[in-house]
Amino acid sequence: MAKKLMKGCEAIAEAAIQAGCRFFFGYPITPQNDIPEYMSRRMPQVGGCFLQAESELAAINMVYGAGGAGARAMTSSSSPGISLKQEGISTCAAAEVPCVIVNMMRGGPGLGNIQASQGDYFQATKGGGHGDYHCVVYAPSSIQETCDLMPKAFDTADKYRTPVIILADGLIGQMMEPVELKMNDNPTMPDKPWACQGWDPKGDRPRAVINSLYIETEVLDDLMTRLNARYDEIRKNEVMVETYKAEGAEFMLCAYGTVARVCKAAVRILAEKGVKCGLVRPITLWPFPSKEVHDVIAQDSVQGALTVEISNGQMVEDIRLAVNGEKPVEFMGKGGSIIPTAEEIAERVMKIMRRA
Amino acid sequence: MAVVFQKTPVLTDVPFHYCPGCGHGIVHRLVAEVIEELGIQEKSAGVAPVGCAVFMYNYMNVDMYEAAHGRAPAVATGFKRVHPDKYIFTYQGDGDLASIGTAEIVHAAHRGEKITTIFINNAIYGMTGGQMAPTTLVGQVTTTSPYGRQKEHCGEPIRIAEMLSTINGSAYIARCALNNAANIRKTKAAIKKAFQCQIEGKGFSLVEVLSPCPTNWGKSPAEAMDWLQDNMIPYYPLGTFKEV
């Protein structure tokens, strides 16, 4: 398919359909309304189902029902709505129900604002809901990358029977960019014998029970051991990271999502000033690319690093853990959806380097 | 020798965990028998609630979900949209359905969702130890209404069957009770009608069942049946409230 100018939310919705998603349950909230609106137009055309739920809670529980019935199911929302969905996300994680959740992050806490933000990093990567679980978290930095990640998100969800979060900031959803969608009329769908679909007592398949209640300690521990082994597999296989001009750099920027693109512009500004600055951009926020982040920042040529976020500092904690004190890591960022310019970032880097 | 009674194969062999005199065991059996009699075991699935019936997935020989508190109708909606040719029921108590899950049940009915809900009304939270429910009667003593429920303080009990019968998407709404054999037979007939309503694709169906909770009512099983008859039925009249 030729490149087409598309709004982020609509491109993401179409990419989900091309990835075989046929069940979408959502609830209106800005700035992601174009996703449910697009789904409401497209799902009937592809024999799928769009349903506007009565609440975020109902939407994620419909996803639980549809995902538990074996379908590729998805919901989308923005920060306050994602908070409401946490009960269901925790349930999906425990009951091993694959599903995809898109969060077009807006400013918080509380109702916050409706501008782009990265304030939900902790919520997405450290659990979000109650209990000892993880979601795989993808953080795209362009509309094209978001579209490319959608089939991967559904595949990963199915492969590991886990919820997967697309953590994008509101800018990704609201801006328009040229994208090339991989059209796929017949996406491969894995067999899901564990799903609720009606049970034949005379058949080979055991009766399906989609459940998150394990009242006996040993039985719950069995589940947690199984989940933990799966999380180790995910850590081993699914880490995604981009490095940009990192080799032999004097200084490293760290950022994800839209901010990483601003950082790339800062890298180019710094190059013009004769500063060899690189960028490391985690694409999976969980599993976090700790080794890759460590290796580029801890290289001998690097004096220090600066993490830039549209928040008061969340991912910077994981960057510091990865670097483990081997190099100084500073933070630049603000809450309230204020995005630093490339010039401001370059100036901050120059200031740090002069100080050193 | 002729077999005159046999446990339905739609129930597993796992022993029920319910207290003596509890109504859940009776209703589980009725639901299972109805599924057997309608010949839909292989095409059916159920959603267990949070509450005393939380382990229902161990007792029913059909594919089962366990839902978070109150969310069973949303989960059933997800299943039904994926498998419109299959049949799904939710089984929910009064804390689950009439308190934390009111949005889900009202909107499932409102959409005319082709699911069947079995709603157990025992006027109390059972599993958590006898707290006040929205269905608790005025004056009834519970662990969170130790002076008896006062309507000035927390309102009067909610009548779910009447409320849902006002919604266009509801196709069959009935209230039954377990206080005697005749009413148990009527309960089974209502449950069957509710499933038939789903099979015929008419819309949302719900059977509210007035059910005893001797443990949390502080009564013997026999006293509990009398209390249900004397106190619950006058406030919660039995009958069919909607049938299309």
Keywords:
heterodimer, A: 356 residues, alpha/beta, Rossmann fold, 7-stranded mixed beta sheet, 5-stranded mixed beta sheet, B: 244 residues, 10 helices, 38% helix, 17% strand
Q: Which SSEs are present, and which pair or pack?
A:
The complex is a heterodimer of chains A (356) and B (244).
Chain A: E1 4-7, H1 8-18, E2 23-26, H2 34-42, E3 49-52, H3 56-68, E4 73-77, H4 79-95, E5 99-105, H5 121-125, E6 136-138, H6 143-160, E7 163-169, H7 170-174, E8 176-179, E9 209-210, H8 217-237, E10 241-244, E11 251-254, H9 258-272, E12 277-282, E13 284-286, H10 290-297, E14 304-309, H11 315-323, E15 329-333, H12 342-355
Parallel strand pairs in A: 2-3, 2-4, 4-5, 5-7, 6-7, 11-12, 11-14, 14-15
Antiparallel strand pairs in A: 1-8, 6-13, 10-12
Helix pairs in contact in A: 1-2, 1-6, 3-4, 9-12, 10-11
Chain B: H1 24-37, E1 44-48, H2 56-59, E2 63-66, H3 72-82, E3 87-93, H4 94-100, H5 102-110, E4 116-121, H6 151-154, H7 160-165, E5 170-177, H8 181-199, E6 204-210, H9 214-217, H10 221-235, E7 239-243
